[in-house]
Amino acid sequence: MKQRKNPIIAAALSIVLPGAGQIYNRQKNKALLWYVVFFMLPVLFILCKCLHSFWGLLLMLFLYIWLYLYNVGDAIHKAVKPKRVESRPLHKLLIIALMIFIAADVYMIASNRSRNTIGLRAFRIITNSMAPTIKAGDSLILDLNYYKKNQIRRGDIITFRHESYKGLLSKRVIGIPGDSVKGEGNTIFINGEAIKESYAQYIERSQGIDGFNRKPIFSDFGPVVVPDGELFLMGDNRNNSFDSRYPEFGAVPIQSVWAKPLYIYFSKERSRIGKKIE
Predict the structure, then answer these.
(1) Contacts of 90 (CB under 8 A, 6+ apart)
(2) What is the mean pLDDT of residues 144-173?
C-alpha cells in the first residue's frame, strides 16, 4: 500500500532536529546518516583548525545552513512522494541512538572541558582601551591554547585576568621580562631605543572615554625594568587605558595570560568584521 506523509510535519521535525523528518518518513538509515553528518562537521572543522580563521568560520556556517535547508527539503520531498510503507513500527534502538547523539552534542558545546579541547572561545570587548585595533562592541574569537605552544613576544595582543577587574582584559605586550621600558610624551623606549607604534593613538579624553577610567593621563614614566615572570602591558588607546604605566595596575604575571585574540567575527562596524587582530 502506498501513502503520503504530511510534509508540514516532516518539515517541522527536520527544523527541530536534522534527521527527525526522515524518521517520520520511515527512512531510518538516511536519518542516522544525516545526524552523523551534522555531528561530524564541526568535529572535522575543529581538527583541521579551520575555525582559527574568519573564513573558516564563514565556510562552516555556510555549509551548515546549506545542509540544514537541504535536509528540510529532502524530508518534504519524501513526504509528498507516494511510497510503499511497511506496517512495522520504528526501531527503538534508532531513537535511542539519536538521543545519545543529541546529548553528546549538547555536552560537547556546553561543557568547560570541551572548550579547552576545542581551544576557542567568543569574547566581547566593552572598553575602548585598545582602540583603534579593537573597539568597544567588537566580538572576538580567542585561541585558548596558543601560548601553550608559543612564546609571548613584544607587540602581541593578549587576553588576561587582572585583580583590578572581574572579567577578562585585552592589552598589547610592550615589555617582556628583563626589558627596560620608558615613556616620553608619545614615544616608548625599550632598552633605550624608541619603537615604532603605528597601532597607537593619542586622543583627548572627551572623545569616547570609558566611564570607569578616570585616571590621569600617564605619558611620561620610567624607566621601569620588567620583573622575571611578568609583562609590561599597554592599551593602544594611550590616553584612555589603565595599564602597566600606573603603579596600581603594574606588570602582569605571565601566568595570568589566558588567550590570544585571533579575529573579529562581529562588530557594529561592518568593515571590521573578519579583521585579524595584530
Answers:
(1) 23, 26, 28
(2) 91
